[in-house]
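Researcher: Sequence recovery benchmark, item below. Answer with residues only.
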């Protein structure tokens, strides 16, 4: 049984980019399909993917996921895939145009937040984000520490009353 308040990972979740919410202020999200090749699906099923350095971009009217590391499948043959190849994001034309418009503004970027399975297909949750300044990150850490301290104090008080 998980601890109270602990975040549980869904069974369908492949990977979460935890660093993205720390480095960026996520303004909106878009769900995109992912065009995969051969052994990439098997690597994803094994849960081997890293979104830490990944980002999305719009090139020539198409959305692409760059620097997402899906390692080669261990039992694959010579037709294995390149781990950090560019992968096409499957979106409607209107969504691509909206993402392109958003990313044109300075300081805004498209960041993959989560990769998961939905109806047997790999999906990526792309966040429309703005980079945080260093002082914003410090403030977030201070708020998180204060909240943790309050919870700890309340737990100790509740324990003392029993």
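Model:
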């Amino acid at each position: 049984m998980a601890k109270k308040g602990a975040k549980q990972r869904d069974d369908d979740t492949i990977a979460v980019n935890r660093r993205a919410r720390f480095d960026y202020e996520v303004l909106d999200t878009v769900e995109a399909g992912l065009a995969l090749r051969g052994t990439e699906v098997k690597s994803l099923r094994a849960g081997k993917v890293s979104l830490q350095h990944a980002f999305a971009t719009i090139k020539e009217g198409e959305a692409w996921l760059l620097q997402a590391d899906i390692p080669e499948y261990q039992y694959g043959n010579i037709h294995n895939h390149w781990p950090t190849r560019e992968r096409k994001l499957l979106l409607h034309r209107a969504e691509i145009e909206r993402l392109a418009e958003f990313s044109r503004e300075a300081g805004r970027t498209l960041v993959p937040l989560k990769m998961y399975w939905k109806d047997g297909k790999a999906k990526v949750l792309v966040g429309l984000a703005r980079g945080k300044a260093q002082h914003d990150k410090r403030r977030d850490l201070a708020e998180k520490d204060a909240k943790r301290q309050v919870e700890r104090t309340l737990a100790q008080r509740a324990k003392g009353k029993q």
